[in-house]
Design a protein that fits this description.
The chain is of the alpha+beta class and 98 residues long. It is built from one helix and five strands.
């Protein structure tokens, strides 16, 4: 079996640089949302953004923790660089569960 050295493999692309999110950054994922009159329809999730994905095209997407986890596999398969700091803040995703 031939020996493979680090210099024999293609280098990994540098991770995308992402700016810190602010309180005004909201989830880009589509969701069913309720109107003030009780009607429902499709719209942006609008929850606080905490997960960022940078597509190979350079486009940045922001997701809440829920939608970030939901779309993580598809984003990774599309070659997106994903920045998910939710583990750094102690998020377990089980809030409200007894």
């Amino acid at each position: 079996m031939p020996t493979t050295f680090d210099h024999d493999t293609a280098p990994s692309p540098a991770p995308a640089v992402v700016a810190p999110l602010t309180l005004s950054d909201r989830c880009d994922a589509p969701a069913v949302v309720g109107g003030k009159d009780g009607s429902t329809g499709r719209g942006a999730c609008g929850a606080q953004g905490c997960v960022q994905a940078v597509l190979p095209s350079g486009r940045h997407l922001i997701f809440c923790a829920h939608h970030g986890r939901e779309h993580e596999a598809a984003l990774a398969a599309a070659g997106a660089a994903i920045h998910d700091p939710t583990g750094a803040i102690g998020w377990t995703g089980t809030a409200g569960r007894g």
